[in-house]
Amino acid sequence: MNKNILELLQSSEDLSQYAGLDQLRDEMETIDANIMELFLKFLISPNPDIRYSAIKRLREAASMGRDISSMLPSLQQLYADKNFPSHLLNWKNEYFSIGGEAVTTTALYYYKQGQVSELETLAALSPFIGSVAIHALSGFNTLSEIEPFTPFLHKMLNGDRIRERASFVLTKIYWLNHDWEQIKQLINHVCEDVRLGAIAMLDNFAEAEQDIEPLLSSLVEIFEHREPDFDETRRAVANIFIWFGPRKKGKPLIIAGVDVLQIPEVQAEFKNLEQFIRKARRGR
Considering only CA atoms, which of 38, 34, 40, 33 is closest in space to residue 16? Predict the structure, then answer.
């Protein structure tokens, strides 16, 4: 390791420690146990920026499959830390708080190590922790990686705030398998949280111009549900079709005999988007 980085990490000054942690970005795959021990100090620092930066480096190490088991007790002490680093002070989403990052890092470690029961125990600690932990699984790259956790995700479909995240991850699994029928079951599920989790993942695919064509007719059928508990579901589906608007360049988008871009909920979301863009431009 660069000697300068080590000196910064061993400094008693916050700015130096922060600079050292920042320079560790490309070193986490090769750091030794002695450097890892320094993280125990950083994780209890009174400075939120130091705690947050240390967790981010550990998250990178966990994602690489590095053994950070000695850090887990210290990370657990931070699960309830609702503070944010200085560059995120205006954020209100606790998923991005120091506590949220600590949970994510722990979940990624269990995931990369294939420790299903440990992840399940983590998810059971609270609805917030469970939701964050399950969402951490959504970045999986191959079906073989996520397969051991699939029964756990099915079980979590019954768990309050957790089921939306479980549906989110399961939809990605089914999409990679081209298992359209399973996805259709999720987007038509009796529970709105499950529907919204699946639709959120499909929204990501639509934004990235990934193939969701086999599901378009089923998504259009959602607009036929006029029950109050489908209001948010219809809006979520409308958001998916927003991504198709610019690609059609004013031309109709006909699906199952319906011009989707003329559906009231879709038009309403286009107006919301236009208002957002206007406000953003005024704020420049």
Answer: 38
CA 88 – CA 185 distance, rounded (Å): 38
Do 247 and 126 reside in the same domain of the chain? no
Q: What is the pTM of this model?
A: 0.87
- Whether 107 and 145 map to the same domain: the answer is no
Split the chain (284 residues) into runs of 10 and give each run's mean pLDDT: 83 93 86 86 96 96 93 97 92 90 97 96 94 94 92 86 92 97 97 96 95 95 93 95 74 85 88 74 63
Of 77, 111, 136, the one marking the end of a domain is 136
Q: Which is nearest to 27 in space by CA: 8, 47, 44?
A: 8
Q: For residue 211, how many other CB atoms are within 10 A of its CB?
A: 10
Q: Which domain holds residue 128?
A: 1-136
Per DSSP (E only), the strands in 9-149 are none
Cα(67)–Cα(172) distance, integer angstroms: 27
CA dihedral 37, 40, 46, 47 (to 10 degrees): 60
Burial of 3 (0-12, 13-18, 19+ CB in 10 A): exposed
97 with 158, same domain: the answer is no
Residue type, 283: G
Domain limit, last residue, from 73, 107, 136:
136
